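seq/struct pair 1
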Amino acid sequence: MLQIKNVYKTFNPGTINEKKALRNLNLTLEDGDFVTVIGGNGAGKSTMLNMIAGVFPPDAGKILIDDIDVTRLPEHKRAAYLGRVFQDPMMGTAADMWIEENMALAAGRGEKRGLHWAIKNKQREEFKELLKELDLGLENRLSTKVGLLSGGQRQALTLLMATMKRPKLLLLDEHTAALDPKTAAKVLELSEKLIREEGLTALMITHNMKDAIHYGNRLIMMNEGQIILDIKGEEKKKLTVEDLLRAFTRLSGNEFVNDRALLAK
């Protein structure tokens, strides 16, 4: 479902601020994989997700989604293939639009636009049924502006919108990092439920090592723009946070440096 082949990315090349973000990165995700991604500061995690999403092109290499070469495809043209939830709950939704208006936009992702009533009664009922699954009471607030929702409600809505069209690949970019622990746990449970029930392929960056171990069927660790550890199946289930820290030190030759990850372990 996803192939990253020999991808390189350097920011500010030839200057004092040169940063080699990705170095010959290779990664393949099979259909239905739920992969968690962890790494130290500046490991290249977010750069990898931004590269997949088309925020900027790679300097070299290829990116394929479901065997479609999207390497040079602009960000807006990848919307038909991808769903994405950002770290900031304020992103991914339009604050001044109603909940149902936001959902209508998500429902029309990748489709041709035309002149018609934006939201039909049948579609409104479908939105209510989807919102009931969140168990947040939002099904009775369709005409509420999204900007009035809490961070957790907004992130849950963004997650629902990102999965409405069953994307070929779901990108979760530390999507619970800005939430309090209780709300973060609920959003993570919802994420796992949607991924499992819809049979989605997902890539989730997290700073929480426990979450990286608990969720998904596969875990990768990045360092200096490369994947240094790739564990799945029973081997992943047996992991502990201490195992991950030891593996990082052994494979990179350095101590793990990510304040939020260490605080969350």
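seq/struct pair 2
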Amino acid sequence: MDLRKSFDSEVANYDKWRPRYCNELFNDIIEYSKLDSEKECIEIGCGTGQATEPILKTGSSLLALELGENFTEFTRNKFSHYKNFQIENADFEKFELVNNKFDLMFSGTAFHWISEEIGYPKVYNILKSGGTMALFWNKPGPKSFDDQLHLKMQEVYAKYRGPEEMQKAKIERENSQERYAKIISTIEKYGFVRAECRLFKQVREFTADEYIGLLSTYSDNIALQEPVKTQFLTDIRDVIYSFNNIIKVYDTMELYLSKKP
């Protein structure tokens, strides 16, 4: 299975449960790039439009590229009332684009699917001088790795996925400053300047069934074979039920801003 397209089978769940980004993040992008109705933007991997509408509301012309056919059709209909919106069912790495055309390229929780050696140089080429690259990811996690609900859920993950994956997530969370510095270094390596990282926080609350809806949109869970997939999701649901049927997710949104000189 091509994991890049695995989400395309979960359009309704994806649109319902995947988190939106906070207004402050978009305000920073809009201010940093000085967006207005004269500007041209491109979004890479728009999904069902979690990051799309705030940019459309600036009046800027927006071209969105989306690999999933179902996502493309869904999002085309979702934003059909915007005259400044165009979407193409296309692979950014292969899609022909005009150089020095765009004032802003942005991508929310999608750019990691693109080859670094292809993605960054191509973005650099299609941006105008002074254009902005805005990359952002949402990193969900528990309030604490010692939280009892989290520990019980990790037992389920270890049973079906092995302990290595969860340990990797913990190490990444505990060494987040290294992650920020590494991404900024990568951005600068490809010629972008004024690179910086800004962080935003939010908390989401789910019932067990709602949380299973969210988990069903993640590529690694979609890729699980039956009956393992159903057994895994059922066990996670049962754990949350045992903790008063409530789970809180603590999001850290990472926004990386930079300019093409």
